[in-house]
Amino acid sequence: MLKSALTGVAILSLFITGCSRRKEVQKTIIQNTGSDTMVNLAQAWAEEYTRVAPLVSVEVSGGGSGTGIAALIAGTVDIANCSRVIEPEEIERAKKTTRKEPREFLAGYDALAVFVHKDNPLEEITLEQLAEIFGEGGKIERWSQLGVRIPGARDEIVRISRQSNSGTYVYFRDAVLGGRDFKLGSRDMHGSKDCVELISKTPGAIGYSGMGYVTPGVKALRVAKKAGETAYPPTVENTLNQNYPIARPLLLYVLGEPSGETKKYLDWVLSDAGQKIVEQTGYVPVRPVSQS
Amino acid sequence: MHKQRRRWEVIAEAAMEVLIRLCGVSAILFILSIFFFVFREGAGFLFGGFDPREFFGSIEWYPTSKTNVRYGALALIAGTASVSLLAMSIAVPFGIGAAIFISEFCGGRLREILKIIIELLAAIPSVVWGFIGLTVMNPIIMRLFDAPIGLNVLNGGIIVALMSSPIIVSISEDALKAVPDTYREAALALGATKWQLIYRVLLPAAKNGLLAAGLLGVGRAVGETMAVLMATGHSINIPHSVMDSVRTLTATIAAELGEAPVHSEHYQVLFIIGILLFSITFVINLTADLVVRGIRGR
Questions:
Q1: What ipTM is given for this predicted complex?
Q2: Is the pLDDT of residue A17 over 50?
Q3: Nearest Cα residue to B221 out of B90, B83, B124, B129
Q4: Nearest residue on chain A to B255, judged by CA atoms?
Q5: Nearest residue on chain B to A152, judged by CA atoms?
Q6: Which fold would CATH assign to domain A110-247?
Q7: Which CATH superfamily groups domain B61-297?
Q8: CB pairs under 8 A between A and B
């Protein structure tokens, strides 16, 4: 009995010292959480940055813009990714819990693409029609109301939406529905990728996601502000010249003035090297990046 | 030397006894503190501002609305109920059938293999089941039933049925095994066929155990989260057929708790859903337990 206990203690102490020895290689970790729209982008940044600064590791996770801001308020992340602007109430809460003011950095733009199945003959849509499809009390329920028939699918419009803590959800509600609520009964997916994946498998579906998530199975519709106006496809050019009506900023939030490795990382993200990655992952950089 | 060792043994023995007793008591302690915690988190809103008529009577679930926040959970309750009901109507007959086959019909070798495989079914993680629902069952259901989308009650029900059948099979099998062999011998001696033996003797004798198996299966189905989140479409909707997408109580908590600001109304309502779920499973488990006790008491 005593002997085995002693052996246990010996093994345990070996284990502890073994762990502490590994710590000697000091690596700075930057915690980065938030927007699901930006998670691919943030991961691409983090991967590239290990080549720039091998001793810094940026740990990226998604969960939604709301999750990122919640973590920022709790003080558990260094950088929160957010695909919507932080709310004044959230700033107040962050100030109260951390005594620091969140600082905002614009890292790029994302055009919110409206996707349908690739076999859907529809080519363009107006914001009003989108509001009628997705908004509470909206009248459009069938594809025939938009003048199309989808080969091999029923007439019913299958609405694919996002869970309510998604920045994409909030942005769509504010920009397209004008702050009104969504119609109940949409299938609420837990990520941009799931959303696009489901649309590509469902002939009668319509949904929205960041333009970077386009796949061969879906088609991004051209979007017009009003009936009769020109509809524009979601491209880098149309986002920068503001022809595409539903584009939004991609933001990074930190608590207080950034310093140390976090500051270096942010500077790099906003530099040409970081902005080139924004373009490569399918989003729109803050300024045109020279291709070299 | 000898004496000292004896003393050590006495101390060790006493220490072990205390430790084991602590382990036993801790289960009760954990349950009580979980209930206390869930209740405390939800209590603030439950006793101030909570509108039970809206919660149980309205389908309008708009926890993050900008203009009009509403907490109607009727569609979520209907979603949980429909998925559990369908799952049980699949899993109970199949589970009890499998248990009858395992305990009455198959020989030693096959029985061991079957039991291992069924236990393996229980070891598959919930999220893997959800993944199967999302990527395998979805297109199959769409093709077979010409449905607009394959993420619906049927999909979730089948997945949950598969997940809860291991528990139903193993408890039913135990119940059947608990029927004394003398019953079987007596029935066979009276000239009963195998079918008559099962239908007239074994099932009535094992009735309580089978009921308990079904109830525990229901508890499993009601509490299942990740798989139903992925397989049911996560859509607020009162289902009119098994082809409709639904959203369950558990999936709502999983999807929304991460974002809800701590101690906000939304957060507290999610905990009230937790209290509701806790009460449902508590009642189910208690009933199952009383039913099982019913067999032993006889």
A1: 0.78
A2: no
A3: B83
A4: A163
A5: B146
A6: D-Maltodextrin-Binding Protein; domain 2 (3.40.190)
A7: MetI-like (1.10.3720.10)
A8: 87
